[in-house]
Design goal:
8 strands; 334 residues; Rhopdopsin 7-helix transmembrane proteins; two-stranded antiparallel ribbon; four-stranded antiparallel sheet; 2 domains; 56% helix; Pdz3 Domain; alpha+beta
């Protein structure tokens, strides 16, 4: 397969991401998060707080639409900056136990500069993933570099902000398509680490390569059924998806550690394994430390924690260096 054929989809993803980055200026915010009809958080100084919304309020309707009618809510066009939406909320006084119903008028404002910056930073990391994969594949078109390019596609589609699409059907179709690409990126990451720098014994099984992508196909079919006729409520799709992600990540890490441990020190340097493992450790360690710290303290009070994920950019860079350094007789050409 010629690498030039993969340039077109990479360019399309890049254009899509740049379009999404430009659309951030039009992204509105009400300054609150909700789930299961309950207000989970209210941004200090945001539109919702100014309107009097509180954490724990139960939303009965949004813009006249009951919150249990999620399908109708999803079909609504995006709120414009400056638009006002009326939320009918149910509130219980903790002291008296009296429940009252109130109308809260929220005027949506522009997304705060800090949040726009975070989206831009995430988009830049997505571009690093995308370009790292394509550069390596164009310079050294091999099976591992092709897999790395697919990893770049997957992570770029998730990290780059999506531009707003007015058509509900097209919006949902695009979202699901990109999610499948993202999931395929995780599967390709595992596949890559099972063939680089040497093929693992498990890959000697004839159907091993296909089995890696079975969860992706299964979840895609599940999504098609859900989109067309709907799934029964007892099928825990979120839980299943979580297991798939955790499984891919755990197996990928095991494969990388196995390669590092079973490869002699001199060969590790020759094949770029030192680059690869160092990039993963440095890229993930700050976020891991923050998650652990979050179990004991409020990490949102620590300056700079919002930008710790910047270290993730080291992962595609280190993989690119490793693949370019390790390109040789041990890699299978496509």
């Amino acid at each position: 397969m010629y690498p030039q054929r993969w340039i077109a989809p990479a360019v399309l993803i890049l254009i899509w991401g740049v379009w999404g980055l430009m659309d951030l200026a039009n992204l509105p915010t009400g300054g609150f998060d909700w789930g299961d009809s309950v207000i989970l958080s209210v941004e200090p100084g945001g539109p919702a707080e100014k309107a009097g919304l509180r954490e724990g309020d139960r939303i009965l309707t949004m813009g006249g639409i009951p919150t249990d009618d999620l399908e109708t809510l999803r079909r609504q066009p995006r709120t414009e900056i400056g638009d006002t939406r009326v939320l009918v909320v149910e509130r219980t006084n903790e002291a008296t136990g009296v429940t009252t119903t109130e109308n809260i008028e929220i005027t949506y404002s522009r997304l705060p500069g800090s949040e726009r910056t975070l989206n831009v930073v995430a988009g830049v990391i997505g571009i690093v993933f995308l370009l790292s994969g394509m550069i390596v594949f164009v310079r050294a078109p091999t099976t591992p570099s092709l897999l790395f390019a697919i990893v770049g596609f997957g992570f770029a589609t998730m990290l780059l902000p999506n531009p707003y699409i007015g058509s509900y059907g097209l919006r949902i179709l695009t979202m699901n398509l990109f999610f499948v690409v993202f999931l395929t990126g995780f599967a390709s990451l595992l596949h890559l680490l099972l063939v680089f720098p040497r093929r693992k014994k498990v890959m000697e099984i004839e159907i091993a390569g296909k089995l890696i992508y079975v969860p992706v196909v299964a979840f895609t079919l599940l999504g098609i059924v859900n989109f067309t006729v709907g799934l029964p409520p007892y099928i825990p799709t979120t839980f299943i998806l979580g297991l798939i992600f955790v499984g891919y990540l755990a197996l990928s890490l095991i494969a990388l550690i196995h390669s590092f441990v079973t490869t002699p020190p001199q060969e590790r340097a020759e094949r770029g394994l030192n680059f690869m493992l160092a990039g993963v450790v440095v890229g993930v360690l700050p976020l891991t430390c923050m998650m652990v710290a979050g179990m004991f303290v409020r990490t949102d009070l620590i300056p700079g924690t919002d930008y710790l994920f910047l270290t993730l950019a080291l992962i595609p860079v280190s993989f690119a260096l490793a693949l370019l350094k390790g390109t040789g007789a041990s890699l299978q050409p496509t």
